[in-house]
């Protein structure tokens, strides 16, 4: 394999379920220190319930509260605050002495600006402003209390932007001439092509202990910047990156290690540990032999994921495959 020989393939110990309730459908999860936040719903119609759990990694429930509406996802802000995202509102989560409480919710329209912030220091906010419609992504920072944006790096795919806008004009023309079937077909094709192209620049701002890290897939490089946004070096990407739809870079928030996660769908998941300083794989590969896993995360050297097992195929559950 390009980049390393993968001398060690780790398959892990037995896979374990974190939330052991068969009726709870796990929508999303996130790590809060040594514990896990788990958002769920269960039942249907008038009997539908929505819940938020605070669990230990050993499956003990520390706290559980009801949610006022169905959760869509969980979100951790750049300042470390956790939120439950719903359709029209998002709810701040307070965690005190291992007990959960929801604070006054915010209008969902405020969320995009908050999500643009990906990292913060004592006096700076670091942002990734993404304009998917025009294939434009900008990384930069602002001083706290200021609005001057200091650009670090920008990715813009001009050819894709022009082509997409021309296709949109064609779709509008078809609709105006009542050729709805052709418009729907062209719109579907445009959506798929746009997603595929945009995925090459739709990458978070990563950080290490002393630098900012931006992956440039077009030029196949990993770029490093200091906290002022000045370039301090780069590494050529030498590991395999076959497309972007089922491949993503993950970080372990506990260990700081980087991984390339490949979801082979029916074939399970593979996580290759990366050395970002050299742009290569290390000798360690983690394998999860379960089909159609979702929302894969690495935490403290263990792989967490959502999966619909054979016991209840209609309910997504949270599992961990341990490597200790």
Short description:
The chain is 14% helix and 45% strand. It is mainly beta and 324 residues long.
Give the CATH topology: Methylamine Dehydrogenase, Chain H
CATH class categorisation = Mainly Beta
In the CATH classification, which architecture applies?
A: 7 Propeller
Average pLDDT taken over every residue: 91
Q: What pattern of helices and strands is seen along the backbone?
A: EEEEEEEEEEEHEEEEHHEEEEEEEEEEE
* Helix amount: 10-25%
**Order of strands across the main sheet:** 1-23-22-21-20
Shape: globular
The count of DSSP E runs of length 2 or more, i.e. the number of strands, is 26
Query: Which spans of ≥5 residues are poorly predicted at pLDDT below 50?
Result: none
Largest sheet entry? 5 strands, mixed
Distance between the termini: 26 Å
Strand residues, percent: over 45%
Overview of the structural elements:
- The chain has 324 residues and is mainly beta.
- It has one domain: Methylamine Dehydrogenase, Chain H (7 Propeller).
- Helix content is 14%, strand content 45%.
- The protein contains 3 helices and 26 strands.
- The strands form 6 sheets. The chain has a 5-stranded mixed β-sheet, with no helix packed on it. Strands 7, 8, 9, 10 and 11 form a 5-stranded antiparallel β-sheet that branches.
- A hairpin with a 3-residue loop joins strand 12 and strand 13.
- It is globular.
- The mean pLDDT is 91.
């Amino acid at each position: 394999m390009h980049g390393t020989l993968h001398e060690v393939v780790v398959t892990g110990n037995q896979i374990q379920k974190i939330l052991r309730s068969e009726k709870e459908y796990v929508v999303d999860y996130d790590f809060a220190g040594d514990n896990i936040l788990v958002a769920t719903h269960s039942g249907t119609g008038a009997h539908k319930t929505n819940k938020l759990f605070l669990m230990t990694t050993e499956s003990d429930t520390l706290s559980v509260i009801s949610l006022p509406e169905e959760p869509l996802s969980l979100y951790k802000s750049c300042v470390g605050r956790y939120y439950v995202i719903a359709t029209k509102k998002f709810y701040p989560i307070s965690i005190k002495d291992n007990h959960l409480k929801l604070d006054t919710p915010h209008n969902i329209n405020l969320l995009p600006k908050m999500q643009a912030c990906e990292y913060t220091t004592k006096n700076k906010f670091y942002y990734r402003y993404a304009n998917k419609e025009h294939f434009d992504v900008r990384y930069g920072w602002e001083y706290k209390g200021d609005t001057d944006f200091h650009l670090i790096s920008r990715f813009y795919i001009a050819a894709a932007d022009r082509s997409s806008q021309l296709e949109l004009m064609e779709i509008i023309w078809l609709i105006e001439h009542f050729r709805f079937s052709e418009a729907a077909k062209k719109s579907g094709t445009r959506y798929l092509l746009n997603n595929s192209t945009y995925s090459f620049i739709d990458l978070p701002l990563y950080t290490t202990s002393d630098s900012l890290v931006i992956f440039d897939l077009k030029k196949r490089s990993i770029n490093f910047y200091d906290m002022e946004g000045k370039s301090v070096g780069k590494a050529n990407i030498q590991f395999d990156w076959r497309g972007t739809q089922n491949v993503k870079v993950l970080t372990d928030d506990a260990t700081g290690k980087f991984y390339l996660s490949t979801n082979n769908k029916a074939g399970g998941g593979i996580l290759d540990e990366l050395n970002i300083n050299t742009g290569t794989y290390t000798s360690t590969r983690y394998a999860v032999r379960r089909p159609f896993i979702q929302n894969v995360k690495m935490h403290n050297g263990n792989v967490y994921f959502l999966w619909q097992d054979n016991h209840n195929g209609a309910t997504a559950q949270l599992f961990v495959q341990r490597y200790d």
